[in-house]
Design brief:
Layout (H helix, E strand, L loop, with lengths): L3 H20 L19 H12 L2 H19 L7 H11 L2 H15 L2 H11 L2 H27 L1 H17 L1
Length: about 170
Amino acid sequence: PIEPTMNLRAVLILCFASVTLFSLRGQDAATTATDKEIVEKDSHTLAIEEFFEVMNMKETSDKTIDQMLAMQVQQQPQLASYKDVMTKFLRKYVSYEALKDDMVKLYKKEFTQDEILTMTEFYRTPVGKKAVSKLPTLTAAGAQLGMSRVQANMGELQQAIATREAELKAK
């Protein structure tokens, strides 16, 4: 049996790590829209959508989710029974399809149409294509490094929180 808090923690870590894929590409994580506004299909939007296609955003997103889940299950084998549930959840809320309209808005805010066209040109080159193919692995490995560092130093964080808690109580 799995502890509910461990399952929740794993899902939260996976959600964070999956979204990392997008934040590495310029997303302002504090600016996620919850509404389902229709994105205007102007030339800037169409350029961004083409950029997403060249970047293989859908496939990259799916691969990243799968790799994050696989790593999490490898670290915590008791999660294997829940892998399908977590996959369904992540694909529902943090997949390319779920985030696309919001991502278009973010890219529109952060990049001009000319900048998008320049990036698209780069990602059509052999080096750009290689970068796209390596992103899921690099994102997963980066998230794994971060999780390992946090876990390895959790005692330090807990001590710092306890110290602050004591300071606050003393006031």
